Each structure stands twice: as C-alpha cells, then as structure tokens.
Amino acid sequence: MKDVKNVSRRSFLKGLGLASGGLIIASGTTLFVACEPKDIVEFNPNLFVQLNSDGNLILVASRSEMGQGVRTSLTSVIADEMEADWDRVSIKQAVGDAKYGDQNTDGSKSVRLLFEEMRKIGAATKAVLITAAAKKWEVPASELRAENHFVIDNNGKKIGFGDLVEIAKTLEVPKDVQLKDPKDFKYIGKYLPSKDVANLSNGSAVFGLDKRVDNMKFAAIKRCPVAFGTVKSYDKTAALKVKGVIDVVEIPMLRKPFGPLGGVAVVATNTWAAFKGKEALKVEWDLGDNNAYDSEEYMKQLTANVHKKGKVAKTVGDVEGAFKKASKTIESTYQLPHLVHAPMEVPNAVVWVQGNTCEVWAPTQEPQRTRTEVSAFLETGEENVTVNVTFLGGGFGRKSKPDYIVEAAAVSKAIKAPVQVVWTREDDIQHGYYHTVAAQYMKGGLDKDGKVTGWLHRFALPSIASTFAPGTVDPAPFESASATNVPFEIPNMQVETGEAPAHVRIGWLRSVINIPHGFAINVFADELANEAGVDPLEFRLNLIGSDRIEETKNEYKYDTARLKHVLKQAAKNADWGKKLPEGHAMGLAVHYSFLSYVASVVEVSVINNKVKVHNIHSVIDCGLAVNKNTITAQMEGAAIFGMSLAFYGKITAKNGAIEQTNFGDYQMLRMPQAPKIYVEIVENNEKPTGVGEPGVPVIAPAIVNAIFKATGNRYRTLPLKDHKLV
Amino acid sequence: MTKLKINGEIHTIDVDPDMPLLWAIRDIIGFTGTKFGCGKGFCGACMVLMDGKAVNSCQLPVSSVGENELITVEGQTENLQLLQKSWEEHNVPQCGFCQSGQLITATALLNGNSNPSEEDINNAMVRNICRCGTYPRIKKAINHSVELKNKG
C-alpha cells in the first residue's frame, strides 16, 4: 500500500525516542498500521488484539467511524478489561470480513452488540498475560494482578505487558474469564477523548475522498434525473473536449437494493475535469415509470389514505366505542416531507479492479455488504475483494448503501485502472436513498375529567422495504413498531397503516421511522393536553401512567419508569414552568428508540413571527454509558440534526426529478442558530443501548410544541421555513 | 504554468487557469486536508487562508490567486495551531470532515479580531456547515483560544 510508510528502524526510533520499536502509524493514514518485523514479536491472542513485545498495543475497530466515536468506544472497552495503558493503544481499522462478526454500522447498535464481546476479549488477554508472568516467576497466577500495562505481584514486583509476549504466545487463551466489577472501570463510563481527535483537526485523517493510489483516475457519473430511468443514447464529443477528460463509459443499472442507478461516467485526470466533462456530456434518457412522481400530489394521495380506514397494526380495547362515549374528540393530520442525508463528505470510492481481484478504499458503513455487492458485480469470489474502510465524513445511513462503490468497480473494470468516483453535491441531493415522506392522522377521545380514553394513529409512508422488494406498498413491521409501542396507558388504542407506493429509492436516515412517529405522537399528545387544559408535563406523565415493563421480543425491557424519569429530569434541568421573557415558551417531547429513553425540553422565542431556539435540555438513558464524551457529543449533534430537519428539511419531486440541488436550497442549521445544548446522561448499570440516533426524534416536536405555547399556532407540517418562521 | 505559494512553498502546476484552487490543491498538488463539500461556496469545507483571510477555494480560479500566500489546514500559522490545540482539548470533531474549513475560518477570524464577541464568532462561522452539529464545541474552542491568546 502506498500510504504505509517504510520507516527505517533508526529514523523511527529517533522520531519517537523509544527504547525499542518497529511499529508506526503511517503519517496521514491512521487507519493503517505497518510493522517492521525485525526484533518486534507480536502476540495475537484474537482478531482484535495485537500486543507487541515493545508494549505497543494495537486494537482493532470492526465498526466504521463516522463521527460517533465508535473506534474509541469499542477499543477502550478492550483496554479497560485488559488493564492496558490507553496511551500505548493505537487503533487499526478492520477490513470488511465476516471473521469480525457483523460490521454493519447502523441502527445505533455497535456498542450495544459488541460491549460484552469486547470486554471478554480484553479480560482473556489480561488473563493470559497474568498466566505468562506466573510462569516466568514460578508463582501461582492468583497472587498476581494486572495494572496499567504491567503484571504486578503482591510485593509490587512488576513486569511490562510487552515483556510477557514471548511466553504468552506459547499459552492457550482462556475461554471463560472473569470480567471486572463495573466499579473498577478505568475508561468505561468516563469522558474519554477520541483517539482520532488530533488527526481530525490537522487535515491528516484520510477520508474516502482523500485516498490516492498511483495512476488513479477520477470519475463523475451522469445519472437519470428520475429514479430507475435508463440511458437511451449519449454523445461524448463535447465531454472528451474538456482538458483532462480521458474517457467516457456507460455504467449499468443494477436494480438491486444497493445496485448503481446506472448512467454515463466521465473519466479524467482530476475531479474538476470529470465534473466539467459530466456537464458537457449529452445524454438522452428513458425516464421510466417514476416520471410522473410529483411529491405535492403524492402528499394529497397519502393524506387521503390516512383519512380512511387502514390495515390494523395494533388494537387494544374498542377505540370506536371510546370515541362515541368521549365527551370530546380531536383529530389532527401531520405531513412530513422526504429528507436526504447530505453527509459533508459526498459518496465516493476508490476501486482498483485487476483481473479477478479488486481492492476498495471507501467510506462505508457496511464493508461486508460492499464486499458482497462488488464481488457479485465482478462475478468473482469474495476472497478476491478487499474492502478497506476509510474515515467517513458523516454517514447518517447514506453510506450503508454501497451503490456508489459498485459504480467505482464498474468504472475501474471498464478503464482497467484504479479510479475514484466522486459524486457532486447535486448528485448526492438528487440521487439519494430518501427518508420517507409521511402522512399521519391522529384521533383522540377525552372523558369529562380530561383523561384520554381513545387513541387512533393512522399513517401512510413509502417503506424502506420497497427498496428491497420493489412494489411494496405497506410498511415493514419495524416501521409500525414505533407507533404500536407507544407507551401510553390508554384503554382503547388502535394503529392503522395506509398504502404508499414508492417512487424514489427509500432509505434509512438517522433515527429512521422514529422521526415521523416521534413527531406525530409528541405533537398530538401536546394537543390533547391543551384540549384537556392540563400542563403538558403533568399530562404526559399521566399518559405514560404507572411504572411497568412493557412486553418486548428481546432481552431489553421497555420500562415506563425510565421513560418518565428522563422526562422529569429534562423538565427539572430546564426549570419547566419558570417565568420566561415575553415571546418565549418551552415545549417538550419524549421518545423511546434504539432501546434508549430520551426527552428534550426546548425554549424558543417567536418574535416578529421568527422562531429562535435558545436552549435545549436533553436527557438520555442509554443504560451503562460507555463513553460519556461521545454520548454527550452525539446528543448535541442530534439536537442540531433535529433542528435542521425541523427548520429546513424538505426534498420535493416534480416530474419524477428531485427539485433541490445543493446547500443553497437544501439548507442546514448554521452556527448563529445553534442553541445552548445541555445533556444529562442517566447513571445506571443496565445493558448499554443506542446513542447515535435516539436524540433526534424529540427535537422537532418539542420545538413545535414550544411554538404553540408561545403563539397559539399549531404547526402540523414541517419544515418551519414553509411557515415563514425561519 | 501557474505558480502557487502554499504553506511557504512554491508549487508550479500546469492546469487550466479556470480550475478552482480547491482541485489544484487536492488533486494536482496533493494536500487533501482541504475538503470538497458542495462546490458552490455554500458550506465552507474548502476554506483556505489567502493572505490571512478565509476564502472558498472551490470558487476561486487558480489564475486569480497570483502571488497571494496560501495556507491550508496542514500549514503553520500561529492562530491555526492555537485553535487546533483547543479543538483537541474540547473534543470538537465528530466525523471531522468539515473541521479543516471550520479551523481556517476561525483562524481568519482571530487574525482580524483578537477578542471576538459571540456575535463576531457567529458572523464569521456562519460560512461553515457542520452536519454532525459540533457548533457548540467549536464556539467553546474558539473562546478557549481567545482566552489563551489574551493570557499569553
């Protein structure tokens, strides 16, 4: 590999001033580690740990880093159980390979699923090192302990981990090991800084877009403006006249969940020439069936579908009967538009196909799926495809789908050279996997005391399942779950779904279905509170009702006491009910997603019909908080992400084509609008649960509820920009 | 031939004079710390310092740079290094992709204003998007740098 530097032993030692050495993280590529075999002995007790005889410890991160801090979180768990010195740890990014277990980095589940496994790996490595010292000193292992990269006996005699490598290599790694008492955690549960923070602040971290390979070409692809349209013909004359353009090749469309959309690629000696060549390229399209997609008309259709009876997804009691008996019923309809991920780093990939082998360097959340898709495209075995995972400049679900990587494989195969395919920002906005568009109808019944006796939630939204099984019109079970598992103690409840055919690729975007459901449920609960004349906090706590464990199909129990606790804490931290300046008001929302409990209280002002968010108080209960630094950062980021979608998020389609183009018309929140964000992490020793996503769904409804309090205006559609509030 | 002075070194390159500085820096000269985010000057990921001021390198043809001195995130200039240290101390980056641009804009701010108010910071940093939402930490890190500067 070009970017792994061969550093002579002498210059290396001089550079780091170490007594012995041989390992370096190549400059500019902290994801790859090179070894100089001389003198250094390696101990690899398992796939995730490499301890060198100089004491340097290389821990493998199997999940992709996209800003959620997963490289640090996962490896710090190993280091903690191992009693390693964190300063001696460097992190190596795993290639895509099933031997590492599932590497799919989405669903806020990396730490949740790998925590115990990483602990066991660390503990087993510690145990074998202790055994090695016992053997060397000829004492029972029970008289020894490990501490900060040393094994120590009762008299304080010490030996460094590195010095135990030779013996440890000869020993068997134990399978059953004793894990630490959580009260003894050194790194877990602390505010541990990211290992990557320096390289992410000085330009040396290598993202996919920064990857360079000798003789690498650059390519941009012109795709049909309408999803699944195809190339009729193209004229490459003008494109080939652009200085730097080398070639023009057609890319096939693969109608698979993660297949390329197809199109025509312009290959050049630099990115800009590829972009210019793409602009000059003339393509005639067969626009296909989605040509008529008009998102405004489509919303009318979805809305009609929720204004009539749908398919029942859940029913408790007799909701129609409850409405008949109610002293008051209210109805509301909520409409939310498509969104697109727009990570700061556009989709891109470097691929080099050589005969039947292939090497990939890409910012991907799903390296194994990438391997499968690329090898299927090339009709070669997976063992012939190497997928190197670079840093991701944001993912948010977009980079779970390796269509852009298969594109690069197609271009590399055609031109017989390594190539970097780079999407323009316009490509990213217009050819994405869109967050669903949703219509939701809610009806509630109140008795004479203001208690909710009936709850009907009907929704229609194109399903993610349509991306896997074209023609799907009904939601997948997981897309109903965040509506059916609403934790309200209401005797009569019903959830229904309406049909919604998809006309663009539908994908998952940070917090997924919880965005529409979290919005409708939280805003409607606020409307009911207002109708009942009860304070929204008190009303919501009553709605959640008694402390109880709701039935779940997994080991994680849905605990209403934990849900109420985050809400109470958020309200307490925000000083809910305090007197606020003229035009200011607070709003709240609470939502359970990715097995975590989150509540936010926001303070807004609406002055001259312009909304400003001043403060956000968020509380998360994600079980044992593995890295509080990361969790706090994720909750801050989720608040900003939630504000962006509340203020600006809207993708529309006309004649099948996406109308937005770039950050000028698909806007993001910027610094002057960023509020003060306060995060509390609930302390407990429950199993760790999701962090990256659950902070998002509460933000938009909390803002809408606060605006209502401030103005008396209820906004049931987003974004707020459409209401001229921003 | 175009001559560009970047991080104290002269680079002579043979490119179309219309090529935006961003691509000359990234693809021709090979400094990849400066990022492509939107290509239209909306997001600030491509910011570089030109004579101490932050410019969107995606909007600037190489022919218009002339003899102006350029500094990228890999370069050395007092305020940049000070800010980078504060970025580390406050754990600013999440994905980190936009941070080169954020740091360059912040450097230009401190170059021109040794004691910026919150409004000054907002007015300067409005040019940069962070999709991960690190704005609160960026603000803290800038303030921290200002404190260090004023102490030192």
Automatic annotation (TrEMBL), chain A:
A GO molecular function held by the record: oxidoreductase activity
Origin: domain of life: Bacteria
Keyword Transmembrane: yes
Pfam families: MoCoBD_1 (PF02738), MoCoBD_2 (PF20256)
Membrane-traversing stretches: 12-34
Aldehyde oxidase/xanthine dehydrogenase a/b hammerhead domain ranges (all copies): 202-289
Gene3D superfamilies: Aldehyde oxidase/xanthine dehydrogenase, a/b hammerhead, Aldehyde oxidase/xanthine dehydrogenase, molybdopterin binding domain
Keywords recorded for this protein, A-Z: Membrane, Transmembrane, Transmembrane helix
Protein name, UniProt field: Isoquinoline 1-oxidoreductase, beta subunit
Automatic annotation (TrEMBL), chain B:
Domain 2Fe-2S ferredoxin-type residues, every copy: 1-76
Keywords: 2Fe-2S, Iron, Iron-sulfur, Metal-binding, Oxidoreductase
A Pfam family the protein falls into: Fer2_2
SUPFAM superfamilies from the UniProt entry: 2Fe-2S ferredoxin-like (SSF54292), CO dehydrogenase ISP C-domain like (SSF47741)
Transmembrane segments: none
Keyword Metal-binding in record: yes
GO MF annotation, one: metal ion binding
Listed name of the protein: Isoquinoline 1-oxidoreductase, alpha subunit
